[in-house]
Specification:
Immunoglobulin-like; mainly beta; 1 helix; 110 residues; three-stranded mixed beta sheet
Length: 110
Amino acid sequence: MSPKWLMVGVLLLAPTAAHADGTRCPQESTLRSINGNVSTELTFINQTGQPIRIYWLNYQGMRQFYAELLPGQQHEQQTFVTHPWVVTNNSEDCLGVYLPDPQPRNIVIR
């Protein structure tokens, strides 16, 4: 493999790395999305006094950013039953990991 190809490979892989490097919840490292068979909806409600960030754990178990909510805001997210979600503070520290149910669900972050 020539150095030119190696450099291109590095550049292509860099954006797929997790860009959220804060403290992880213990169960986060064991979770990943499995399939998209059963659609559902989550509504994230920020009742903290700080902004929060919402991440989907993709099929490789990596955080993928979806939304930032200011205090008092909410975000409706279509998802699937086997797709875990992580909520963090602005320092990327995990505030919680959430697994969707078949029924739509509200997730209140306090």
